[in-house]
Amino acid sequence: MGETWATLGVDLHLETGGEASRGGVRKGLTDALREAVRGGRLAPGTRLPSSRSLAVDLGIARNTVADAYADLVAEGWLTARQGSGTRVAERVVAPPVRAATPRRKGGAPTYDLTPGTPDLSAFPRTEWLKAARRALAAAPNDALGYGDPRGRVELREALARYLARARGVRADPDRIVVTAGFVHGLSILGRVLRQRGVREVSVESYGLDVHWNLLHRAGLRTAPLDFDELGTCTAGLGSGRSCGSGAGASKAVLLTPAHQFPMGVPLRPERRAAAVDWARREGGLILEDDYDGEFRYDRQPVGALQGLDPERVVYLGTASKSLAPGLRLGWMVLPSALRDEVLGEKDASGWSCGALDQLTLAEFITSGAYDRQVRAARLRYRRRRDHLVAALAERAPETRATGIAAGLHAVVELPQGTEQSVVQAANWERLAVQGLSRFRHPRAAVRQADALVVGYGTPAEHAWAGALEALCRVLP
């Protein structure tokens, strides 16, 4: 078979106008090729198909194509050399004009201490690439098909073993559903709860508005639980007696038991038991967000709440903190009664996760690389946590870091009434940092404490010292 447009790796849509076009087929082809080069659809150096191949593909005479090529060579759009074929001529291309974007006061941030992201520069690229190669080499052909809505069985089996060993989760691969991150899982659960007739979900007084808004879009109200010096109150779930006012009509609750975000305290044993007792008594459901449960420093790990009652707790985890949020890989461990409804909703949503990424993560976990990555990250973040505490003691003694026994962030308590002024000062210092008020539920009946939520896990290693210095400059 001769050379064709397809075998040369070039696929281009051309509208030549046909015989009826003004100037005929030759002019129509010449104009179409010229516009493709001018508009950037044919990049400099791109080899064009031979005149014979293009003539066959377009259903026109070969001489017409050869004449059009010759015209464009003469104009300087194309070059033609013996043995090299016809190519788009090299030329200086003006960069596209971009609309101006508004700049924040003090300019774009130089340092980033916003919570919620790990050090992306520490992603284990070499080990991940090795795992990807092994996974692809071993992948069965059916791994490249549409697949099981639960996710690849290799990943579900690897997760079941890892979660049981490292987090105390009672996981059967058949009850694990792979998601495109935590938000994907929560959005599915929100719709399933609404279809079950649930109207309200209890949430913590401090958390992420993106989660609350997602539940609202599913047609659910969110009711904040009380919060005291010991953390989230669960004793009065369903009765309005949650350490005071609490939530009364909820049939589901969203909790971060291992390390409350952003306050940083674990859910106390008696309050964990109270939440499970409520779920059993009232037929309620606990949604457990185990967003950074692997990162602990000064205490023994707090196991997953799901281990107390797998039929009343949905366990949600992701690789976003341990590896990178860009992987878009998360998982749910479901009660058996909820599995089919969740799978139906997930299938209907059309969201999916790449099979090769799932296979790579399965290999990454099974090979032990995931454990090594978590241990290395734990040491790195603990060192940063210690630097932060020491710097505050020396440079800002009127502040205090709390919630620091685990996780990737700390709450830096400020003198009363100073939160907004400190955030503004950080803005002028080109330091991205968020105040605690940013994470308070609008209906929460809690004391208006002033504090910063400092994500010490976010900066790249080379930027950490500068970010810490910028933080110290803006603190009282």
Please characterize this protein's 3D structure.
- By secondary structure, the protein is α/β, with parallel strands linked by helices.
- Helices cover 37% and strands 13% of the residues.
- The protein has a seven-stranded mixed beta sheet with strand order 4-12-11-10-9-5-6, with helices on both faces. Strands 13-14-17-16 form a four-stranded antiparallel beta sheet, with helices on one face.
- Strand 9 (252-255), helix 8 (269-282) and strand 10 form a beta-alpha-beta unit.
- The N and C termini lie far apart (77 Å).
- Mean pLDDT is 88; it is low at 1-9, 99-104 and 240-248.
Q: What characteristic shape results from the CA principal axes? A: globular
Main beta-sheet strand count, sense and barrel state: 7 strands, mixed
State Rg: 29 Å
Q: For the largest beta sheet, what order do the strands appear in spatially? A: 4-12-11-10-9-5-6
Distance between the termini: 77 Å
Low-confidence stretches: 1-9, 99-104, 240-248
Secondary-structure element order, as H and E? HHHEEEHHEHEHEEEEHEEEHHHEEHEEEH
* Tally of strands: 17
Mean pLDDT, all residues? 88
Overview features:
476 residues, alpha/beta, 7-stranded mixed beta sheet, 4-stranded antiparallel beta sheet, 37% helix, globular, disordered N terminus
Compact summary:
The protein is α/β, with parallel strands linked by helices and 476 residues long.
Strand and helix map with partners:
Elements: H1 24-38, H2 51-58, H3 62-75, E1 78-81, E2 85-88, E3 111-112, H4 125-138, H5 153-167, E4 176-179, H6 182-195, E5 200-203, H7 209-217, E6 221-224, E7 227-228, E8 231-232, E9 252-255, H8 269-282, E10 285-289, E11 313-318, E12 330-333, H9 339-349, H10 355-366, H11 369-395, E13 400-402, E14 410-413, H12 419-428, E15 431-432, E16 434-435, E17 451-454, H13 464-474
Parallel strand pairs: 3-15, 5-6, 5-9, 9-10, 10-11
Antiparallel strand pairs: 1-2, 4-12, 7-8, 11-12, 13-14, 14-17, 16-17
